[in-house]
TrEMBL record:
The keyword Transferase applies. It comes from the Bacteria. Protein-arginine rhamnosyltransferase that catalyzes the transfer of a single rhamnose to elongation factor P (EF-P) on 'Lys-32', a modification required for EF-P-dependent rescue of polyproline stalled ribosomes. GO terms for molecular function: protein-arginine rhamnosyltransferase activity. Keywords: Glycosyltransferase, Transferase. This is Protein-arginine rhamnosyltransferase. It comes from Polynucleobacter wuianus. NCBIfam families: efp_Arg_rhamno. InterPro entries: EarP. It holds the Pfam family EarP. It catalyses: dTDP-beta-L-rhamnose + L-arginyl-[protein] = N(omega)-(alpha-L-rhamnosyl)-L-arginyl-[protein] + dTDP + H(+).
Amino acid sequence: MRWDIFCQIVDNYGDAGVCWRLARSLSSLHGQEVRIFCDDLPTLNLLASGVDPAIKDKIDIQPWEACYNNARHPVQTPDVVIEAFGCELPERYLAGLFIAPIKPLIINLEYLSAEPWIVDFHAKASPQSHGISKYFFFPGFQKEVGGILVDPIPPEGEKVAKQIPYDLKAVWAKLRSGAKRISIFCYPGAPLRKWLEDLGALGEDVDILLTHGHAELLNLYGEQPIQLPSNLQLLSLPFVSQDDLDWVLSQCDFNIVRGEDSFVRAQLAGKPFIWHIYPQEDRAHEVKLAAFLDLYLEEANQELRLATIAAMTWAMPSQWFKALDLWSTHSKAWRMQLLKNQEDGGLAARLLRFVA
C-alpha cells in the first residue's frame, strides 16, 4: 500500500523522529510505499542521515507544499494518510482526495501516552463531514493500544560498544576509564547548572555527554561559564543522526531525554533515565508523567519508587543517585517487558493490521 505521512515539526526533533522511524519501519520491515511531507526538511534529513541508503532511498521525502504542487499526486492517491500528532491536512491535498475514485483511510496518529483512558479511545472512528473515513490511533505501552516503535531493536553487549559511529570517535576518545557516563538531551527549562553542581559534589567520576546545543544552553563558553569540580568532565557531541543517538543512549549509564522518540529509545536501551517531558501551560504533562510512572514502577520496591520519582521531577542527584544500581536492574527488566509486549511488531505492525 501507499502511505502518505504528514509531519509538522513542533518541538524540533521528537515529531520528526517519530515520523521518520515509522516511515522506515513501514518501508523496510513491511514493504510499504511511503511518502513523508514535512514542513522542516533540514531537520528530518539530519535525523535520517547515516541510515543505510538501501533503506533511506525507498522513502520519498517531500517538502510540505509538494503534496499539492506535485502533478503526479492525483494519479497516485494513497491508501492510507497519517496525520501525525493531529496536524491538519492541507485543504488542496484534501480536495484531491475527494475526487479520488477510491478514498483512502485517514489515521490521526496521536502522541504516545500511558494514560488509562486511551484504551477506550484507541482505534475509534472520527466522523468527518467530507465522508472520508478517519480514525484515532493511540500509541501506548498497553497491549490493547497502538504500541511503540521498536525498529531497530537496540542490541546489547560489548560488541556494540566497539562499533563507535564515525562522527563520535573524537568525543569517545576523551572518555575516562572507570567514569560513569551520562547523556543529556533536555528542554531549556531544566535546572541543569544546579543539577550538575550537585552531581559534582558527590565526588564520583562522571563523563557528561551534552547533545548538540546544550553547551550553549549551559553558557559553557560565555561570560559566566559553569564551574565544576574535576571529577566531572563535560563533552559536547556534534549533531548526530537518529541511529547514532540510539547508540549513545545504549552506551551510557544514565540518560536524560525529552520528547517522544528519545523517550522510547532510552527505555529500549535498558538504562535509567529522566524523561524531561514537554511542559504544557495547563500542566497536563504532569498527569502524563504520573501515568507513565505508574506503569514503569508497578513492580518496583518503595526505595526505587521514591528515587525514580524524585529524579523524574528534577530533585538533585544527591537525593537519589545512590539507588542507581537498583534502578539499572529495574531498567533491564522493563526493557524485556517492553519487548515482550511488542512481539507482534509494535506500532507499525499494529497500524498495518488495523488498516487491513
